[in-house]
Design goal:
The complex is a heterotrimer of chains A (about 550), B (about 400) and C (about 325).
Chain A (H helix, E strand, L loop, with lengths): L5 E12 L2 E13 L4 E5 L6 H7 L8 E10 L2 E2 L5 H7 L4 E4 L3 H4 L6 H11 L5 H14 L5 H4 L9 H13 L5 E5 L7 H17 L3 E6 L2 H7 L2 E6 L2 E7 H6 L4 H9 L18 E10 L2 E11 L4 E5 L6 H9 L6 E6 L2 E2 L9 H6 E4 L3 H4 L6 H13 L3 H14 L4 H4 L9 H14 L4 E5 L7 H18 L2 E6 L2 H7 L2 E6 L2 E7 H5 L5 H9 L7 H9 L5 H7 L1
Parallel strand pairs in A: 3-8, 3-9, 6-7, 7-8, 13-18, 13-19, 16-17, 17-18
Antiparallel strand pairs in A: 1-2, 1-4, 4-5, 9-10, 11-12, 11-14, 14-15, 19-20
Helix pairs in contact in A: 4-5, 4-7, 7-8, 15-16, 15-18, 16-18, 18-19
Chain B lengths: L1 H26 L3 H4 L3 H23 L4 H26 L3 H8 L3 H18 L1 H4 L38 H37 L1 H15 L3 H16 L3 H32 L2 H9 L3 H38 L10 H8 L10 H36 L1
Helix pairs in contact in B: 1-3, 4-5, 4-6, 6-8, 6-15, 8-9, 8-11, 8-13, 9-11, 10-11, 11-13, 13-14, 13-15, 14-15
Chain C lengths: L3 H28 L5 H6 L5 H11 L5 H13 L7 H10 L8 H36 L4 H15 L2 H15 L15 H35 L2 H8 L4 H38 L5 H11 L2 H28 L2 H4 L3
Helix pairs in contact in C: 1-13, 6-9, 6-11, 7-9, 8-9, 8-11, 9-11, 10-11, 11-12, 11-13, 12-13
């Protein structure tokens, strides 16, 4: 057995908060052989990024390595001098950051930043490195590989920047690359091409890699082995196929099970039913730019309609039109068969009560200076006129309904709650108005998977118990699969396709729906390979979208 | 020129010393000296040299009276602040105790000074030995209270050229200067804050109109604008000097309210885009509920910090105006005017250090309060920005 | 994408417009005086005939709008009117010297003030930038903490406090520099610098503190950005990270800091000139305020405001020009 390329033993890292040191990583071992790809997965706060950076002998400000060793190719990094580390970084260990847009220096062209490493480390001359960079851009299937490098970062799109950053990491042909959530900020259709490009180039140069992500399906495509982290501790490690098919630990099993939650299908809509909310031919614009073109769809009682689309598709704008924040230029919103005034200021209290909203970021959706009791109590008092003990009793009912103990949470401030609990409070505030219709705007996208699943289950239960109608805005097809009954696919402000969920998930589709559906990574390690073969190398991502 | 050579020489010597220090340190091994930059070593040497120079001046140079006073004052205040913080940690309700536990020394020093000034200002009449306008027969008494040196124990800081007790005037200065600055700041906040929040919440033409007006007013440097308006105010006031003080309060309040407006509008603007405001709007809440129940509670922290900074600014502006002779008018005792009236005494420093210290005491009284408020605000800002991380 | 030239032109027009409105504000403020200039010149005991005569001479019988444009038109040609004080003085001595116009009095004083501001900037800008960057690089070190206390204290102190402390130590106790800055036109440069040094040092203390804190904040902000971390992770030397990666992006904030503080100097100069009896425009202004020499006050105010607007405008333009996003549009 040869020496592993990266060997971490008993690594402990602490972070400084409120004048004391709290542990972030509590004693982790890690081995990585040459040419292998290790996937690090875990929810937020698991310490994945900290561990990834520590593998480079680097800690962020306010963190310190308190124990353990990090050995790269026999060189101990923990106590190494700055000069020793500098000689390795960039040259033999490279890093690909989560946000390429923020990690490229806005003041220099891409190629200047690409050649900087090789020139400074004395690996290549500037001219050699420039030619090599263009070659790498081509290998990574960047459009206009010959001159894309001569642009400034703000002139290049996010998915392309992420590939350019991978090229930059490759510039010195390192032995090891740390990928820190490189596709998290990208849309699904863009994510595919970046994933494919990264995987190819890592295989081609036989580079070892640590791939950090929170997305199981993504890591299944990229890694040979997977290590699961939970709050700074290792849960388990195994090779990818074993891990996917036979996880041993409870926590891992629960992570895996998340993706399987799905509600039973509902009976068909009666032919004579009146839609609760009906969007009729809405065209809307911000100033001079039209963002919605003639949108129409209906939402029926007790059912969930998922509005799906990538960023910029106009799905959130539809919600703003329904709530009356953005009066449409033409078209109307009907509630139970009668048209609502376009501007929310002109709607009656009862009309406002019937349509409630749950927001994506629970942090900004709850007033940080009000207690939970005040937040939920206000709509109770405002709409239903309950005061004093009655109001309190109603708030406690609502807290019970969202599965939070009233005694504990009534007087707490939002900052004392976890992300999932805050989102539950947002739901309770919407329920307090006793509405018929609730808009859920990306309610789970800021949450970890297990917590998100809990929220989705709660929403489903509430719908069954209270007969609510939901409009769920999301970019995540797993959410759609889990709770939607009908689905509306949007792109560039237009409805591309709509229909029942079963019908939508089964072919034939509109080409864009097809692209969207097929781009969602699956837990099968062969999924990406199969997909690429199916589509053909030139026909993924940007290229595919462009052809439609 | 020779001074420049001296400075360069000293720096070079210190760098050399730093290099030697690091070289010796490296012989002992250990990572501290290995990774030490020459700049850091230079810093240690510089600190060492400064402390050495200070000790030498303090103990061995007879003439460095002012330096000794400064050092004694500094150490005295530091000890007082430390004791004050210790007191705060063990007395009072739990919430303030917790606050004192996280507090740096500078902040507790600031709070202590602010408290002392507040007490002086409120109880000036009881604390001061004489009235602020009381004129005595003994003119131009020297400070120190030593009869042989031309002083009088009844007037520890001496009297001015028309025979008013300087200690009393210094104490009354707290009431007048601080009180007037405080009132001005409050007016500026009421005016600027109200308009700023209205502009942020309502937006539209009101916002545009107010913001453009503020832009124009802010394009004139505030002290210059204040001086211009004071010229006109002095013509309006004529011989009624008291009226001029009222005009000054109004003028500075209006000029300063532009800065408050900017801040309130920016803070309000950041809060207005939050989802919980949107939720409240969609609920059908009225404007007053939005401003007082949703926006204001979240704007308190930055506004409080700004109040501190604004107060300092107003305080300094008033002191400057008074120093220039167009601010608070006699017979009210105020520090800016006192500095101007006593400034010539500074030339007696070599013969009677205490006399020379008189104008500095008045100016120092101004500086001490603003430093204190700034320390507190600095701590508050650091605390609130730390919470965000 | 809006082109840079268009943005620059927009800002220029906005700056000129602001200056125009400011001149109106100043004019209106002055016209709020009770009675009018004529009354103010002659005092309470003047005969109505004399007041009327002066009114006609000064054009005060015209409506305000016309007077405003006359004043503005003359001001643009460099004619800022005649000084009351000097007019009185001239009447008293019976001489008609050229020094009665405001412009003639302001010109040499303005040059002196610019000299003072120049000396201050020459000391303050390099010192504060270096110290500010050092404080940012060694943040939370002992040096940073001590610097924080010093800068906070110096910002908080009124200019005259710093001025008298400096006078005490550098002029009275150790007579190194003169405490009065009387400057004549036939002095050599060396003499002028020596006379200017003490007021310049006072201003430097205040401005340096401001600039240093702002530079520190800007650099810390910059160093926290992901592309700086990326540069470090590429194994670049600390010097290269600073010079090649941080500095190009630090230009805009640093330019802003410098311009803001030069603008601050305009206000600071008034008090310091009075303390040191420095014959600059600030002292002239304060004297004019005290004796209510309206045309002089008006002119000084306009000059101060113009300088202030000009500085803010240049800061704006320079930071626009240093932004790569605007220099290289999509």
């Amino acid at each position: 057995m040869t020496q592993p390329l990266l060997k971490i033993r008993g690594l402990k890292i602490e972070g400084r908060s409120d004048e004391t040191w709290t542990p972030i990583i509590n004693g982790i071992d890690l081995d990585l052989n040459r040419g292998d790809v290790l996937g690090l997965i875990g929810e937020s706060g698991a310490g994945k990024s900290t561990l990834g950076l520590a593998a480079m002998g680097f800690t962020r400000d306010g963190c310190r390595i308190s124990a353990g060793s990090v050995e790269f190719d026999g060189i101990e990094l923990v106590n190494a001098s700055a000069a020793v580390k500098r000689a390795l970084l960039g040259k033999r260990i490279a890093y690909v950051a989560q946000s390429a847009a923020a990690s490229f220096n806005p003041a220099h062209r891409l190629i200047d930043q690409h050649t900087e490493g090789p020139v400074q480390h004395g690996v290549m001359s500037r001219a050699e490195s420039e030619a090599d960079g263009i070659e790498l851009y081509r290998k990574l299937r960047l459009p206009n590989a010959d001159d894309i490098g001569f642009r400034y970062p703000h002139q290049v799109s996010g998915g392309q920047l992420q590939r350019a950053m991978t090229a930059m990491a490759m510039s010195c042909r390192p032995d090891l690359i740390i990928f820190d959530e490189p596709t998290t900020a990208l849309d699904v259709t863009t994510q595919i091409e970046v994933l494919a490009a990264i995987r190819d180039i890592v295989q081609q140069f036989d580079t070892a890699a640590v791939y950090i992500t929170h997305d199981l399906a993504v890591v299944a495509q990229m890694a040979d082995r997977i290590k699961v982290l939970l709050q700074g501790d290792e849960v388990e490690e195994a090779d990818t196929r074993t891990m996917l098919s036979a996880p041993t630990e409870e926590y891992t099993k629960s992570l895996w099970a998340v993706r399987r939650f799905q509600r039973p299908a509902k009976p068909a809509i009666p032919a004579d039913a009146t839609p609760v909310v009906s969007v009729r031919g809405i065209t809307a614009a911000y100033a001079a730019t039209t963002v919605l073109h003639d949108i129409s769809f209906d939402m029926y009682a007790g059912r969930t309609v998922a509005v799906v689309g990538e960023s910029g598709s106009g799905k959130s704008t539809v919600a703003r039109c329904i709530t009356g924040l953005l009066p449409p230029k033409s078209g109307a919103i009907e509630f139970m068969g009668t048209a609502l005034p376009a501007d929310y200021r002109k709607r009656s209290k009862d009309q406002l009560r019937q349509i409630q909203m749950i927001y994506q970021m629970a942090d900004t959706a709850l007033n940080p200076r009000k207690t939970i009791g005040q937040i939920i109590g206000r709509p109770v008092e405002f709409y239903l006129g309950l005061k004093g003990a009655k109001r309190r009793a109603r708030v406690e009912d609502l807290l019970n309904l969202i599965e939070l103990e009233p005694k504990i949470y009534f007087d707490r401030l939002p900052s004392e709650l976890s992300g999932g609990q805050k989102q539950r409070i947002g739901i309770a505030r919407a329920l307090a108005a006793e509405p018929q219709f609730i808009i859920c705007d990306e309610v789970t996208s800021a949450l970890d998977q297990l917590v998100a699943e809990g929220i989705l289950k709660l929403l489903a239960r509430l719908q069954d118990e209270l007969g609510l109608t939901y409009m769920v805005i999301t970019h995540d097809l797993a959410t759609v699969r889990a709770i939607a009954d009908e689905m509306v696919v949007m792109k560039d402000g237009r409805v591309v396709e709509q229909g029942g969920k079963e019908q939508m998930f089964a072919p034939p589709h509109h080409p864009y729906t097809d692209l969207l559906l097929s781009s969602v990574p699956e837990m099968d390690p062969d999924w990406l390979t199969c997909l690429l073969e199916e589509r053909g190398v030139d026909n993924i991502g940007d290229a595919a979208v462009g052809k439609m | 020129m020779t001074m420049l050579v001296w400075i360069v020489g000293c720096v070079a010597a210190l760098i050399g010393a730093g290099w030697v220090f690091r070289f010796i340190g490296r012989l002992t091994g250990g990572t501290v000296f290995r990774d030490m930059e020459i700049a850091t070593a230079f810093g240690y040497m510089l600190a060492l040299a400064s402390v050495g120079l200070g000790v030498w001046l303090f103990f061995f140079v007879e003439a460095a009276v002012f330096f000794r006073w400064a050092v004694q004052g500094f150490i005295g205040f530091a000890i007082a602040a430390f004791l004050f913080r210790l007191l705060g940690r063990h007395l009072g309700p739990n919430s303030t105790r917790r606050l004192f536990r996280q507090m740096p020394l500078t902040a507790s020093f600031g709070i202590m000074i602010v408290l002392i000034y507040a007490i002086l200002a409120i109880f000036a009449g009881a604390i001061a030995p004489h009235g602020q306008e009381e004129v005595f027969a003994q003119v131009n008494l020297l400070p120190g209270g030593n009869v042989a040196m031309g002083g009088d124990p009844a007037f520890p800081l001496g009297t001015d050229q028309i025979g008013r007790d300087l200690l009393s005037r210094l104490i009354y200065g707290a009431q007048n200067t601080v009180g007037i600055a405080f009132a001005t700041t409050v007016i500026a906040f009421l005016l600027g804050g109200t308009l700023g929040f209205l502009a942020a919440t309502l937006g539209g033409w009101l916002d545009q109109l107010l913001s453009r007006m503020v832009d124009v007013l802010m394009a004139i440097p505030s002290l210059i604008f204040a001086l211009l308006l004071m010229t006109i105010a002095s013509a309006w006031a004529g011989s009624q000097q008291q009226l001029l003080t009222v005009y000054m309060i109004l003028i500075i309040a209006v000029i300063d309210s532009t800065r408050v407006y900017r801040l309130a509008r920016a803070v309000g603007g950041n809060i207005v885009v939050m989802d919980y405001i949107e939720a409240a709007k969609l609920r059908g809440e009225g404007l007053l509920y939005l401003i007082f129940k949703e926006i204001l509670p979240n704007a308190m922290a930055p506004l409080l910090a700004e109040f501190g900074l604004r107060f300092c600014f107003v305080f300094l502006t008033i002191a400057s105006l008074s120093f220039l002779g167009v601010g608070i008018q006699p017979p009210l005792a105020d520090w800016g005017t006192m500095v101007r009236d006593l400034s010539q005494f500074i030339n007696f420093a070599a013969f009677s250090p205490l006399t020379a210290a008189l104008p500095l005491m008045a100016a120092g009284a101004i500086a001490l309060l603003t430093v204190a408020v700034n320390f507190v605000v600095d701590w508050m800002l650091q605390k609130s920005s730390g919470l965000k991380e | 994408m809006v082109s840079v030239t268009r943005i620059v032109l927009q800002r220029l027009v906005l700056g000129l417009l602001t200056l125009f409105v400011v001149s109106i504000v100043i004019f209106i403020a002055v016209n709020m005086l009770p009675g009018d200039f004529a009354q103010a010149i002659l005092g309470q005991g003047a005969t109505p005939e004399a007041v009327e005569a002066i009114r006609r001479d000064l054009g005060l019988d015209q409506p305000p709008v016309i007077r405003y444009f006359q004043w503005l038109g003359r001001a643009l040609q460099g004619d800022l009117g005649s000084s009351f004080a000097q007019a009185n003085f001239a009447n008293f001595t019976g001489t008609e010297s050229g020094a009665t116009t405001v412009a003639a009095q302001i010109a040499p004083r303005f040059a002196n003030t610019m000299f003072l501001a120049g000396v201050t900037a020459a000391i303050a800008v390099p010192v504060s930038l270096v110290l500010g960057i050092l404080a940012a690089l060694y943040r939370n070190s002992a040096f940073d903490r001590v610097a924080n206390i010093f800068t906070l204290s110096s910002i908080s102190s009124p200019e005259f406090f710093l001025a008298y402390v400096l006078i005490l130590f550098l002029a009275v106790l150790n007579p190194l520099l003169p405490s009065l800055s009387n400057i004549y036109s036939d002095m050599t440069l060396g003499q002028r610098v020596e006379r200017t040094l003490l007021p310049a040092l006072t201003l430097t203390l205040v401005v340096t503190a401001h600039m240093m804190r702002m530079t520190r904040a800007a650099i810390i902000n910059l160093l926290a950005s992901p592309y700086i971390e990326m540069a470090r992770l590429k194994g670049l030397s600390p010097l290269r990270v600073i010079v090649h990666h941080a500095l190009p992006n630090a230009l805009a904030p640093i330019i802003n800091v410098i311009a803001l503080n030069l603008a601050y100097l305009i206000t600071g100069v008034v008090v310091v000139e009075v303390v040191f009896v420095y014959p600059g425009i600030g002292q002239l202004f304060v004297d004019a305020v005290k004796i209510r020499d309206i045309p002089m006050v008006q002119a000084c105010c306009l000059i101060f405001a113009a300088a202030y607007i000009l500085l803010n405008f240049s800061a704006d333009i320079l930071s626009i020009l240093s932004n790569p996003r605007l220099r290289h549009p999509k």
